[in-house]
């Protein structure tokens, strides 16, 4: 942020869904002296109302704003989430958990999975999940907050939340309004374009709201970036062909609430299951070319764990993103900037990444090209990496039981992903990047979970003698199992 300018930047946030209120709260919480924030939303239009599974980064967002975790969890009926269980993705009957956290710990500078691969080839070790406290705790439905020593594999894991999507924005709204965000209720009917920027938006009652910076959080419609500034859409549907979803909540089944989200592969996509305190969220994400809306709804309803609590709700979307997320004085955050399907619960993370980057590049009353470029470069990298990671879940499969799976198994993939796969297959190496989503353990989880077994591993992992290595691995798995056994059940951790 620059210091020279005295006048506060007038920020207009268009939209009051999760993206809009997260942005408004983030700006008023972290840049109170730099901006005045007005948020416009239309109750008549409403919000998308899905988006219930999150990533651990959300904890950082709450912490930075000083929002109490317990208050947030109580207000949103949240549960803890230790990862995602994938069923039937590699082959029907397969199952693995992609945890938040690491496997084992590095030895002599070499990542744990290289040692595990060596001994797995010899049939001498349990599945790699036994070396992740997050996986073991998820399977036993236990939870406690991670320990403070990141080097201790028995307590170092991450966690996120599963929450009621309709309650998060109202919770943040209360918080943000109490700190000075002005909320305007009503429908925007047009935007005044001025060159490559937006000067003001006009409401259905004739009011005109001007600003220096507009944050487009208008959802799939992308009112300012897409409609007004006509920023082109980059279509990724050839790699991520799912374009519909049907969602329905159901009653919770008896028993301990799972501290994880479940994704189960279906003939034309996959279904989610997100256990909350008071209900379970369900949805079938599918490809309209291979499945009708009626078929999808019937399949979803047939697999519920309890009574449906509402009518099934259809949603339509396409995978891709606007070429630039920030153009002129319009920054798109959330669905207005792009969409990657929820297989790895990444959308709210992308909202958060955009807010973080906006704050890092927060402009004066006039936007500098360098800020726009810095923001766009950061967001492009986030989208591209997540895209490749999602495609991996579809492409790395042996399934040949439906036209959908035949398509995704045999489709061409982005070169960036092909390179990552080649690196892994040859030497069990994971392409590295310093920050952002999906670091080494995540790729290891999905590669192995979907049977992409490398032919080799780091030669340094051959150094320890086999018997000693097996003893060390056995002790580690035992220590993790013992630690998890001492954790409270997930229900108890929630105070239920
Ligand atoms: C099927 C599905 C499942 C998903 N699951 C997950 C998940 O598990 N995890 C995850 O992280 N994300 C998930 N997402 C994404 C997540 O739902 C969104 O990223 C998140 O809710 C943010 O949405 P939003 O605020 O951008 O848009 P919306 O919720 O659609 O909000 C748009 C806002 O703009 C306002 N608006 C629009 N037009 C106007 C107008 N003309 N005038 C005034 N106001 C207007 C609306 O009233 C509303 O307030 C999922 C998405 C889909 C489609």
Q: How are the SSEs ordered, and which strands pair?
A:
Layout: E1 9-14, H1 18-30, E2 35-41, H2 57-65, H3 69-76, E3 79-81, E4 83-87, E5 95-99, H4 112-121, H5 133-140, E6 160-162, H6 165-178, E7 182-185, E8 188-194, E9 197-203, E10 208-210, E11 213-216, H7 223-228, E12 233-235, E13 244-250, E14 261-266, E15 269-275, E16 280-286, H8 293-302, E17 313-316, E18 320-322, E19 326-327, E20 330-332, E21 338-339, H9 347-360, H10 369-395, H11 403-410, H12 415-427, H13 440-449, H14 466-485, H15 490-493
Parallel strand pairs: 1-2, 1-11, 2-7, 4-14, 11-20
Antiparallel strand pairs: 3-6, 4-5, 8-9, 9-10, 12-18, 13-16, 13-17, 14-15, 15-16, 18-21, 19-20
The chain binds flavin-adenine dinucleotide.
Flavin-adenine dinucleotide binds next to helix 1, strand 2 and helix 9.
Structure description:
The protein has 15 helices and 21 strands. It has a 7-stranded mixed β-sheet. The protein has a 6-stranded mixed β-sheet with strand order 7-2-1-11-20-19. Among the domains are: 9-78 and 163-235 and 320-385, FAD/NAD(P)-binding domain, CATH 3.50.50; 101-157 and 414-478, no CATH class. The protein has helices at residues 18-30, 57-65, 69-76, 112-121, 133-140, 165-178, 223-228, 293-302, 347-360, 369-395, 403-410, 415-427, 440-449, 466-485, 490-493; strands spanning 9-14, 35-41, 79-81, 83-87, 95-99, 160-162, 182-185, 188-194, 197-203, 208-210, 213-216, 233-235, 244-250, 261-266, 269-275, 280-286, 313-316, 320-322, 326-327, 330-332, 338-339. The longest helix has 27 residues, at 369-395. With 496 residues, it is α+β, with helices and mostly antiparallel strands. α1 (18-30) runs parallel beside α6 (165-178), α1 (18-30) packs parallel to α9 (347-360) and α9 (347-360) runs antiparallel to α10 (369-395). β14 (261-266) and β15 (269-275) form a beta hairpin. Bound molecules: flavin-adenine dinucleotide. Residues 15-20, 40-42, 45-48, 50-54, 187-188, 217-219, 221, 223, 245, 283, 315, 317, 334-336, 342, 345, 347-348, 351 line the site of flavin-adenine dinucleotide.
């Amino acid at each position: 942020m620059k210091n020279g300018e005295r006048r506060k930047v007038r920020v207009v946030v268009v939209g009051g869904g999760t993206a809009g209120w997260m942005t408004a709260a983030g700006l008023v919480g972290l840049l109170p002296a730099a901006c005045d924030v007005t948020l416009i939303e239309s109750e008549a239009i409403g919000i998308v109302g899905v988006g219930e599974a999150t990533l651990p980064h959300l904890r950082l967002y709450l912490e930075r704003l000083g929002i109490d975790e317990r208050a947030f969890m109580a207000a949103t009926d949240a549960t803890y989430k230790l990862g995602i269980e994938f069923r039937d993705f590699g082959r029907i009957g397969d199952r693995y958990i992609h945890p938040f956290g690491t496997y084992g710990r590095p030895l002599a500078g070499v990542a744990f999975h290289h040692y595990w691969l060596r001994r797995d080839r010899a049939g001498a070790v349990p599945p790699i999940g036994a070396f992740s406290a997050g996986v073991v705790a998820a399977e036993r439905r236990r939870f406690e907050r991670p320990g403070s020593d990141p080097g201790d594999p028995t307590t170092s894991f991450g966690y996120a939340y599963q929450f009621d999507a309709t309650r998060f924005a109202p919770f943040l709204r209360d918080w943000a309004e109490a700190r000075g965000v002005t909320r305007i209720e009503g429908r925007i009917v047009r935007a005044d374009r001025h060159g490559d920027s937006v000067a003001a938006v006009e409401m259905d009652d004739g009011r005109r709201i001007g600003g220096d910076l507009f944050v487009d959080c208008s959802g799939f419609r992308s009112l300012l970036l897409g409609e007004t500034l006509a920023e082109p859409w980059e279509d990724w549907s050839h790699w991520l062909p799912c374009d519909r979803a049907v969602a329905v909540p159901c009653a919770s089944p008896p028993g301990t609430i799972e501290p994880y989200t479940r994704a189960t592969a279906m003939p034309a996509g996959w279904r989610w299951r997100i256990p909350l305190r008071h209900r379970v969220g369900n949805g079938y994400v599918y490809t309209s070319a291979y499945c009708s809306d009626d078929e999808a709804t019937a399949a979803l309803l047939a697999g519920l764990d309890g009574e449906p609590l509402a009518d099934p709700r259809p949603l339509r979307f396409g995978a891709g993103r606007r070429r630039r997320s920030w153009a002129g004085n319009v920054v798109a955050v959330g669905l207005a900037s792009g969409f990657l399907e929820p297989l790895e619960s990444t959308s709210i993370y992308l909202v958060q990444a955009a807010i973080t980057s906006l704050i890092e590049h927060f402009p004066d009353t006039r936007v500098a090209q360098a800020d726009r470029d810095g923001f766009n470069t950061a967001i492009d990298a986030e989208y591209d990496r997540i895209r490749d990671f999602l495609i991996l879940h579809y492409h790395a499969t042996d399934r040949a039981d439906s036209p959908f799976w035949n398509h995704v198994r045999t489709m061409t993939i982005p070169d960036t992903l092909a390179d990552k796969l080649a690196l892994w297959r040859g030497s069990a190496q994971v392409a590295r990047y310093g920050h952002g989503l999906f670091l080494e353990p995540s790729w290891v989880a999905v590669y192995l979970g979907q049977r992409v077994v490398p032919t080799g591993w780091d030669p340094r992992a051959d150094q320890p003698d086999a018997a000693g290595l097996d003893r060390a691995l056995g002790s580690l798995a035992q220590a993790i199992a013992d630690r998890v056994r001492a954790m409270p059940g997930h229900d108890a951790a929630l105070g239920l």
